[in-house]
Amino acid sequence: MNVPGLQLARVSKIFGSSVAVDRLDLDIAEGEFISLLGPSGCGKTTTLMMVAGFEDVSEGSIRIRGRHVENLAPEHRRIGMMFQAYALFPHMNVAANVGYGLKMRGVAKVEREARVKRALAMVHMEAFADRSPRSLSGGQQQRIALARALVVEPDILLLDEPFSALDRELREELQHEVRRLQQELGITTVFVTHDQEEALLMSDRVAVMCAGRVEQCAAPAELYARPATPFVARFIGRGTLTEAAVLEAGANHCRLSCLGREVQVPRPLPVAAQKTANVFFRPEDATLRTSPEGAGAGLSFEARLEAVYFHGASSLAELAIIPSGERAFVDCTALSRHAALTTGETFTVDVPADRIHLVPLKP
Ligand SMILES: Nc1ncnc2c1ncn2[C@@H]1O[C@H](COP(=O)(O)OP(=O)(O)OP(=O)(O)O)[C@@H](O)[C@H]1O
């Protein structure tokens, strides 16, 4: 049987009267890269700090490669860490910084030097071994911090917003580099970020957190296509979420009344015997037209154009659904190329029935 790289079972963290992490369950496979993603204050860093041992758990258990670590000091957990602040020792040169953890573990000098050299080579910084960290750029310092985390050959790598102080280009370069190394080494990794693009780009799976709990943990494409809760639907990417009344619930379809129109969706309700359902669709699954005539089969409604966001390769329309005023987002790349889209004007939005995803109601 495969032992998971990291297991959190009903882990809670309570600070005084406030619950920062609330009975969190997470199983991370050996060699997997998982991101903890969520809004500020949802408990991402606290979760990581409990895994690292810098915060005690209030309740629950944490196992690294099957080994309980709740009562182990951080230095005995076999973890490597990298933070937003590089936290390099300014009075030591790069090689000494990278080798520090090995020295503390009593690794002999010859072996230490060989391992430091290997770790610096991994991050393409061999030529900088004798330099002072102060003489390095932010990106170079972060590479050294990564070498320092990896040199101890940890069981898991914990990364807390390690790129957030870097400019876009460097950030992308390091995202790529970290992912390459992580895959080459096959090291189980937990990555904290509030940047969803970064999380979707880098991870095998993303755990979306809200108020101390994991709302959904899934592969990036799954999260995007099939958000499991209204929070995830709103948080990941752009989308339109609206309620519908259930008229009929079949084994392979359901009939809904949504935005003043009946629509038959070719899938069952996510939870049986609901009276209402959450209808959800992505901007690229809907189309916008100027004429109100000739609705196709599917969902169709009128909305007022509020804004057009030009992204270069694509354009996104933000609309207010008439009459409720709920937000709708529709890709308008094609339409905007041959028609002037004037804000304040009314458009018809069409969504084919098979592009409608039904998000479970909040339990
Ligand atoms: N040492 C502490 N004492 C009291 N409350 C704390 C402490 N550390 C964190 N908290 C609270 O716990 C909650 C979760 O904080 P945490 O830093 O884990 O969130 P986060 O998701 O990492 O947020 P951010 O993205 O802003 O870093 C917050 O409400 C925070 O105020």
Automatic annotation (TrEMBL):
Q: Does the keyword Membrane apply?
A: yes
Which GO MF terms are attached to this record?
ABC-type polyamine transporter activity; ATP binding; ATP hydrolysis activity
* Annotated InterPro entries: AAA+_ATPase, ABC_SmlMolc_Importer, ABC_transporter-like_ATP-bd, ABC_transporter-like_CS, Mo/tungstate-bd_C_term_dom, P-loop_NTPase, PotA-like, Transp-assoc_OB_typ2
Lineage, top-rank taxon, reads Bacteria
Give the UniProt record's GO annotations in the biological process aspect: quaternary ammonium group transport
SMART domains according to UniProt:
AAA
UniProt domain ABC transporter: residue ranges? 6-236
What does UniProt give as GO cellular component? ATP-binding cassette (ABC) transporter complex
List the residue ranges forming a coiled coil, or say none: none
Catalytic activity annotated for this protein?
ATP + H2O + polyamine-[polyamine-binding protein]Side 1 = ADP + phosphate + polyamineSide 2 + [polyamine-binding protein]Side 1
| Enzyme Commission code | 7.6.2.11
Q: Which Pfam families match?
A: ABC_tran, TOBE_2
Q: Which UniProt keywords apply?
A: ATP-binding, Cell membrane, Membrane, Nucleotide-binding, Translocase, Transport
Q: What do we know about how this protein assembles, alone or with others?
A: The complex is composed of two ATP-binding proteins (PotA), two transmembrane proteins (PotB and PotC) and a solute-binding protein (PotD).
The family classification in the record reads: Belongs to the ABC transporter superfamily. Spermidine/putrescine importer (TC 3.A.1.11.1) family.
What is this protein's function?
Part of the ABC transporter complex PotABCD involved in spermidine/putrescine import. Responsible for energy coupling to the transport system.
Protein name as catalogued: Spermidine/putrescine import ATP-binding protein PotA
Naturally occurring in which organism (per UniProt): Xanthobacter tagetidis
The gene behind this protein is: potA
